[in-house]
Automatic annotation (TrEMBL):
Superkingdom in the source lineage: Bacteria
EC number(s) reported in the record: 2.7.1.100
Enzyme class: transferase
Gene this protein is translated from: mtnK
Keyword Ribonucleoprotein: no
One Gene Ontology term from the biological process aspect of the record: methionine biosynthetic process
Lineage of source species: Bacteria, Bacillati, Bacillota, Clostridia, Eubacteriales
PANTHER family cross-referenced by the UniProt entry: METHYLTHIORIBOSE KINASE
Protein name (Swiss-Prot/TrEMBL): S-methyl-5-thioribose kinase
Keyword Nucleotide-binding included in the entry's annotation: yes
Length: 408
């Protein structure tokens, strides 16, 4: 018997180190271990344990009973099971693109996994105006493989329904239903919005009944369309980068939902990086060059997604009716429509809602930040309202550039 088998409690650094030596069979017996809590996300505790002798290291991620961002969110620690299960599944579907899981502990609600500290979090790298030429290729392989190979187009339908059961994720879905689809679109007390943007939101979003109707349709689409096993939170803070490879982390929001969610989430966050560059790079040449790289990345992410999805479909489709003429185009067209809508929701919710992004909050000049926020909100609304017009990568970036040209 050890304290780690008696019952669940949230660990501190000393206890996490003790856990690593007494539960995990990972370090040498003479290891010289140190432990640091490095979590900077909204929900969990992340411990990095290093052996200074061998330089081996490991990550232990533990789910607490409340979100770190606010104890208003009472989230079941069982999300850690979902996270470890989906990481293992994604490892088989898109090998090399997720950390390796070493151990899952259902009592302590923690997962031990590969340490990726030689990578950097993509959001911060983009704020530092770094480029990753292979990123679009990497992330589209990950997205296409994980989405298409878990769908009814490829999977045996009964096996897929078993996966749906395993990945029922009510607490974290509720967070998304509230924070992404509901609260940003009315004057919710939980919103956190700067004054100039509040006026803009009141006029352009909260008072627009047509927009509200579309957000309700999208919320119900999110709640009912069990299309693919999605990551569920694929923003640039859930991606580790270095030149090669790219690693996707933090899939605790995973469940069976609309396939366009992950792609839309990612594009929305690349647009935040684009607006960060617009607002913070003073040198005009440098700004142009960096924005061109981001623009190219957004275009490639969408276009490579379409290309690879088509190719994998032809290779892996098992559902006979999916081979009917026109069905593939209908299916991909729907994903792109959802992608545009989710891009729009993400752009709105990170500006108005509770959970912000550093790309925007780190813009110190308040006028420049207000302009960036207006561009995001105007583009967001357009992505939602005109979601059926987005067919290529160029369509996505065109809207943002139009609003940049029209908003001072
Ligand atoms: C209460 S959690 C707030 C946000 O952080 C996560 O990363 C998700 O994006 C969620 O919406
Ligand atoms: Mg996260």
């Amino acid at each position: 018997m050890s304290i780690f088998t008696e019952g669940y409690f949230t660990m501190n650094e000393i206890q996490a180190l003790d856990y690593a030596t007494s539960v995990l069979n990972y370090f040498d017996l003479d290891a010289d271990l140190s432990c640091k809590e490095i979590g900077d996300g909204n929900l969990n505790y992340v411990f990095r344990i290093i052996d200074s002798k061998s330089e081996k290291s490991i990550i232990i991620k533990q789910a607490g009973p409340f979100a770190r961002i606010s104890d208003e969110f009472n989230v079941s620690p069982d999300r850690n099971r979902i996270e470890s299960d989906i990481l293992k599944l994604q490892y088989t579907l898109a090998e090399g693109f997720v950390p390796k899981v070493y151990n899952y502990d259902s009592i302590m609600n923690c997962t031990a996994m590969e340490d990726l500290s030689d990578h950097v979090i993509m959001r911060q790298a983009l704020i530092d105006h770094k480029k990753f030429p292979l990123f679009a290729d990497h992330i589209t392989t990950f997205i296409v493989n994980t989405l298409l190979l878990t769908s009814d187009v490829v999977m045996n339908h009964k096996d897929k329904k078993e996966l749906i059961k395993n990945f029922i994720n009510p607490d974290l879905c509720e967070i998304t239903e509230d924070l992404v689809y509901t609260e940003p679109f009315y004057d919710c007390t939980r919103n956190d919005v700067i004054d100039t943007t509040r006026e803009f939101a009141q006029k352009e979003l909260w008072g627009d009944e047509k927009l509200l109707l579309e957000t309700a349709k999208l919320k119900f689409e999110f709640m009912t369309n069990a299309q693919s096993l999605i990551h569920g939170d694929l923003h640039t803070g859930s991606i580790f980068v270095k030149e090669n490879p790219t690693k996707v982390i933090d899939p605790e929001f995973a469940f069976y939902g609309p396939a366009g969610y992950d792609l839309g989430n990612l594009i929305g966050n690349l647009i935040f990086a684009y607006e960060n560059a617009e607002a913070t790079i003073d040198d005009l040449y440098e700004k142009k060059e960096y924005k061109e790289w981001l623009e190219e990345t957004i275009v490639q992410v969408v276009d490579l997604f379409i290309f690879k999805f088509n190719a994998l479909w032809i290779e892996r489709v098992t559902e006979e009716t999916a081979n009917y003429k026109g069905f593939k185009e209908y299916y991909i067209g729907n994903i792109l429509k959802d992608t545009a809508a989710i891009t729009g929701c993400e752009l709105c919710r990170r500006i108005i809602g509770l959970a912000h992004v550093k790309d925007i909050t780190s813009i110190n000049n308040i006028e420049k930040r207000a302009r960036a926020e207006k561009i995001c909100l105007s583009s967001g609304k357009k992505f939602i309202m005109s979601r059926e017009i987005f067919k290529t990568g160029a369509d996505f970036i065109k809207i943002v550039k139009e609003f940049e040209n029209n908003i001072n």
